[in-house]
Structure formats: structure tokens, C-alpha cells
Amino acid sequence: MITYYDDRSVQVTSTAVRVDGRSYPLAELTTVWHRRGDRSWRVLAGRGAIGAALAGPLVAAVLGIALAVWLQRSAVVTIAIVGASVLLGLAVGPLADFLFEHLDRSYARGSREMEMWAQWRGRPVRLLHTRDAMRFGQVYRAVQRAMESLPSAPSRPGPGRAAPGPSTPGPSTAGQNVIGSSGSRPSPRNRP
Questions:
Q1: Helix-strand-coil percent breakdown of the chain, rounded to 5?
Q2: What is the pTM of this model?
């Protein structure tokens, strides 16, 4: 047995996908697809706040220099204002590393809810629901690799052929991507 992904709540092996204590044998999964939800405005506002925190001291430094030149005071006063403005601008340096790291983690987590669904025993089941885009990508790719490693069976339908009923979510809905039984994503043949 090969383990493709393993964390506290999700384990993807060459035989099954286990999510929160439930096990779904790969041989019983005919189609796997994912959906992206709407953007979280809270996450986007947080990113904007980090950008403002980064830019604020620099803008204040530039405004201080402009003020010093505009006031046309003595050289000592002008140098003092310019010096204070430059020090204020440099103060963002140590803070910038922390803020850039936080901003980078925000992009890695993503700003959308992600769901992974599968056709299991003829009905759709939601395997995973998370806002963590990096983790979602790792799990989705692990499921894709696990399904690619399965031997082809004549009873398994081809990519995109096993669609759920009309009242349930399924891979045929617009804006979704599908992994078929072979692990490949259906794509137009006319792409370069």
C-alpha cells in the first residue's frame, strides 16, 4: 500500500481515501471533481490591511520630506524633519518581513472555499471542504495520483461519463473540474 497524503483528518492511499473516519475505497470511486466557492471578502480585506500597513510608514516618510521642503525653514529644521521622515520609513523594514510572511501565507491559504466531491456507489459524496488552498491542492493531487495508479477495469466508466442525478451536485455543473477514472482531466483536443 502506497500513502500519497496523510494528515490528521485525510489519508489518501493506493486503496482508499479516508476522511474524518470515513473510508471510500478507490475501486468504488468513479469520478472525482472539485468546486470553488465565492471569494471571502474578509480575507481580501485582510490582505488590503497588510498592504496599507506596509505602505503607511513609507508614505509618511515621503510626506515628511515634502513638508520639510515646502516649509522652507532653516537647514537644521529641514534636516531634522527629513531625518525623522527617513527613520520613520526605515522603521517599516523589520516589520516588513513579518507582514510579507503573513501576506504570503494568506495567498497560500487562498480566499475561496474549496470542495472535493466523488461519485461513490452511484451517489455524490463530499470528500473534503476547506479554505486552505495549498492543503486542498495536495489532497486533490494525491487522489488524482492514487486513481491513476488503479488498474483499468471494464466496469469503471471513462472520464466525465458518470454524472450524478439532476437534483444532486455533479461534475457536469459549470465551473467544476473533473478527474475521471483514469485520473485525467477532460480537456478539448484542439489545445496546443
A1: 45, 25, 30
A2: 0.56
